Amino acid sequence: MTTILRADRVLFRFSGPDAHKLLNDVVTGHIPEAPGDAAAWALLSPQGKILAEGLAGSVDDALWLDVHQSVADDFFKRMRMYRLRAKAEIEDLRETHRVGYSPDEVPGAQRDRVGPVSMGWRLVAPVEDTAGWSSDDTPYHRARIAAGILHQGNDFPASDAFAHDIGMDILEGIDFAKGCYVGQEVVSRMKHRGTARRRPVIVSGIDAPAGAAVVADGREAGMIGQVVEGRAVASLRLDRIEDPDAVTVEGKLVSVALPQWATYCFGGPAEPENTN
């Protein structure tokens, strides 16, 4: 079994009696208190835009969160600010630990992403234990693109997307039952008023770089993310795609498809069918 190094992810370790409360009060998702599946989460701005996102898992009496390297410094700074007087330690582990991916279960790994999508298994390990990991992360990105999963840093920058835009409400990256967290008011309003405008769409047959515009009926619907083997995920305006067979990227026809977990449709609102 091959473990794939996710070299663009940075790990942070949260420990101490107040670590769980600190995270649960600040980020969108349900933060696990005991070992088990890794849980999706996002840190939002007060305006509801994603500043950082990743997975959280409980390992060795601490919470381990990973973020894209492009937002690691800002995430660390913000979390230390939110800590205030909480009895919690926040450690930046970019020099000592790595994040890995395996399509198959391996000892010590956690299932990657709860909810309707299983992305294999997530591993966290000291650098010295990762010498045998593969440095080619193409298989990971091929799998996530096929599943319709958008990643910050690979597909969109910080402060560019709302949580609904990348499907976090459907992928269980938002805990709608817990109390307030940063950006909660915007998330709640988008859910109950149906104001989400974009949703993840899988785009195939691409001959263009990441960031190229997706055009439908002469209007831009969004931009493609990281391209792997001619496929990418894009957060698109569904209401602009009346004819899925007439979508182009840089003037070339492409194929668009909804993820298997989608509860939305082309040409309609971006809200899931059940918003209760």
From TrEMBL:
Keywords: Transit peptide
Lineage top rank: taxon: Bacteria
Gene3D superfamilies linked: Probable tRNA modification gtpase trme, domain 1
Chain ranges of the CAF17 C-terminal domain: 197-263
Alphabetized NCBIfam families for the sequence: ygfZ_signature
SUPFAM superfamilies: Folate-binding domain (SSF103025)
Stated name of the protein: Folate-binding protein YgfZ
GO BP terms, alphabetized: iron-sulfur cluster assembly
Pfam families attached to this UniProt entry: Beta-barrel_CAF17_C
Matches recorded under InterPro entries: CAF17_C, TrmE/GcvT-like, YgfZ/GCV_T_CS, YgfZ/GcvT
